[in-house]
């Protein structure tokens, strides 16, 4: 292969990508990265307000061709309608990023089963619903990339996040299973496992204390991360481009941790 051919493997020119929950945070960064690599990008969020705000944010970054749709990804009928609409109005989907997610930090014995079910619904059942909606088209066209946004909590636990860890652990295995079931049809399904990333979702864990000192969880994460810092959403851009592109055509069923080393680390010795 020539140098040009090797670098072209990372290009997403001519591809169309859907990023669920791509209105801010990690989803916005991943959508921006895929766009920069040449993809046509669409996203969905839960309300008209979220979509409009995000479209302004994309336009401010000179991405005026990004399209946004309202869709609750836990609602199968709405998702089926969304995929049909995107494939008619924009183009058939080559790339799906299952990014939309929520967390509820509640000690397990105090957690209502409704809260547990809602987290599993958004973080695990919804990726199944959206993948199920895009897969027939991908199979028909003979290629497809599905990226599931997992977590270091896909393989680690901690207090108060039973539902989230169960859902993200399940998402890791859903990722492997999609690989097993559709790998023979040239579909690659991989996960990105972010570490602790500074976004709205983790803001309560980083709030300074009343006396101006760092939040104890903030200090805990810095000590637990070999890189010695929180991640930023830009840390997920390279992994997303790689997993969406032809450069990863023989990578399947894998979770790529972009976590500053958290899952490799036992913690600082005393
Ligand atoms: P965030 O800032 O809270 O953003 C979550 C996004 O998901 C929003 O765009 C939200 O849109 C969307 N969303 C939530 N429920 C939805 C639903 N039912 N249907 C459609 N969209 C929905 O979160 P983030 O930190 O960027 O996290 C993004 C993903 O990365 C999540 O899956 C999260 O679990 C995962 N993750 C985060 C971290 C971290 O440290 N931040 C680490 C590992 C993994 P609306 O505003 O319209 O509701
Ligand atoms: C927590 C964090 C995590 C992160 C992330 C870690 O409460 O432990 O919020 O859930 O969001 O998923 O990778």
How would you describe this protein?
It is a single chain. Strands 3-2-1-4-5-6-7 form a seven-stranded parallel beta sheet, sandwiched between helices. The protein is α/β, with parallel strands linked by helices and 270 residues long. The chain is built from eight helices and seven strands; from the N terminus they run αβαβαβαβαβαβααβ. It folds into two domains: 3-197 and 236-258, Rossmann fold (3-Layer(aba) Sandwich), CATH 3.40.50; 201-231, no CATH class. It is globular and about 55 Å long. The mean pLDDT is 98. The structure holds NADP nicotinamide-adenine-dinucleotide phosphate (NAP) and D-gluconic acid. D-gluconic acid (GCO) binds next to loops.
Features:
270 residues, binds NADP nicotinamide-adenine-dinucleotide phosphate, 8 helices, binds D-gluconic acid, 14% strand, single chain, alpha/beta, Rossmann fold, 2 domains, 7-stranded parallel sheet
Explain briefly what this protein structure is.
With 270 residues, this protein is of the alpha/beta class. 41% of the residues lie in helices and 14% in strands.
